[in-house]
Amino acid sequence: MIRWKNPREKPGWTRREFLLGALGGGIAASGYSLLLGNCTKKDWRADTLIARVSTYEVDIASILRKGFRELGLEGGEIRGKRILLKPNLIEPHVGAGHINTHPNVVRGAVEAFLALGASEVLVAEGPGHSRDSFLVLEESGLGDVLVEDRIPFVDMNYESGYAVKNLGGRTRLASLTLPASLMRADWVVSLAKMKTHHWAGVTLSMKNLFGVMPGIYYGWPKNVLHWEGIDPCIFDINATVKPHFAIVDGIVGMEGDGPIMGNPRHAGVIVMGRNPAAVDATSARIMGIDPYKVPHLKAASGRLGTIRESDIPQRGEKVASVRTDFALVDKIHAQRGLRLQ
Amino acid sequence: MRTAAIKGKGSGIFPQLETLRGRELDGGGFSLRPGGEYRADATAWAVLALTATGTQKELLGKARDRLAAGQKEDGRVCISPDHPEAFWPTPVAILAWNGSPAHHEAQSRAVRFLQDTTGIHFKKDPESPVTHDSSIRGWPWIANTHSMVEPTALSLIALRLAGQGEHERTREAARMLMDRQLPAGGWNYGNTFVYGQELYPQPENTGVSLDALAGSASREDVLRSLEYLAARTERVRTPLSLGWGLLGLGAWEARPGRARLWLKECFELQGKYGPYDTTLLSLLLLAYLATGGIASVTERQEPPG
Prior knowledge:
The complex is a heterodimer. Chain A is of the alpha/beta class. Chain A is built from 13 helices and eleven strands. Chain A has helices at 29-36, 60-70, 75-78, 103-115, 133-140, 142-148, 180-184, 215-218, 223-228, 230-241, 276-286, 295-300, 319-322; strands at 48-52, 82-87, 120-125, 153-155, 161-165, 175-179, 187-197, 201-203, 245-255, 263-273, 314-316. Chain B has one domain (14-297): Glycosyltransferase (Alpha/alpha barrel), CATH 1.50.10. The interface between A and B is large, with 44 and 47 residues.
């Protein structure tokens, strides 16, 4: 387990600022321009790295840093930047750690970005099923990790929002109301869990961004997005937010009736890269799922990135060497026929 | 109000009360967090908590005025002026205006808005993977979406305490909540089974639903939920779950004897997570002062003659 040698020396916020700091202060215009920038094919940078990680009790920060180096992510790009890590925290359920991004992966990611010189790394989430985010933190074990390492957390469900034009255009939503912490961030990292999903087929780094939409404007469980259609909303949110990096916790994922009621599945990997579509396509292939049969991944292909295997420079492990077929449930429409041949 | 007013001074909650008062804004009303902007939800909850302490009449009047000033013509109270679709603070505003003759008109408009408004409801496809009866009307979080458990429960509470307990929408809301109750006990955000699997209950949804159903359902009808919540509340110390857990149990005369001890532990959790926002602080103060459900610490309007 990774711990700070002396938490008081670690740059970051005090406990008094915990949960609050990211809400105050001015909103940086630079973050705004990042959110609205154009995404063209030459920017896809689809290189994706698969790291074999058998357990959560290893030095995950070192594994991530090694992966960053392989992907060309160096200090010069991160130094002085504010990094927002968006884990997947849906609802609390004691003993079901495979629902949420594991706390040690969050801890490792924080340490890895700080080591690259980030001025600030905060964790932000708007849990979809539970209004009690403190309970999600307490029962997922993440709360203790955040406090121990003095990592700030923002509950995006309750943040005042700012409207931006919906750059995806797949839904009727002309604008999206995003939380203020997203605007303040220089870099947005989707820190997802590797799971099957009963409405979306899979939930990986792209679907994970549902959690940035504040519940106070979108409801619990983000009802507006469900009524607009999950797949087109995934496209619109990703097209608008444009996360800079994606990390998928596939050490122990979830198979079957995800994202809550499925069973744990050990895949023993962390997948990462700059292009969420490419990272998710690779993750899907590891799960034995054809990304072209997952509607939101297919929709992203050629528009938000690439999911074509030959267009994704694969680093680290090969997909075939770590492929772990996740159980699919035939009666679940969104999972029918997804198996990769 | 059923309970005698507690002034706060000399009691264990005085520092929390002072924190809450300190969040009053110059123009009236409350922010969610220190230094923040006006928020309708924070203001309505703060009014409820401060009313229960029986203090600060002038402050309460200004806060209720601010709520009324932000009310839309059709009676809804929204999370912000540019988001009229997010009208979920309306039931809490109705509760906040209870017992204030100066705000009777605002409250009546809000009541009419709720009674005239519902979520999207439809006859379920027989092949649907969800099992609840999607035709029973309640209230949604956000306009033009399906009705969910918590806004329906809060609206039911608000309408009943505004003297509208016999209205058809109030009765239908109780039916909707009963339909969304999980067979093993408890409620979550609003789904029961999906693809044949019974979903997990959550304490805050269960607490607010039990509070709402007190007087509308029999103990036998909610027994498993009471058992679930009693067991769960012993283990939770986070504000939303503990606050509603205690109010839900209290509404059924099942408030645990150690409730105040647990609430103190919950207040102390601020040492770990930082100060609670205004809505959570208010909920905890209400749970601390309550002898039963939320009705035991809230003004009640008599039914129309």
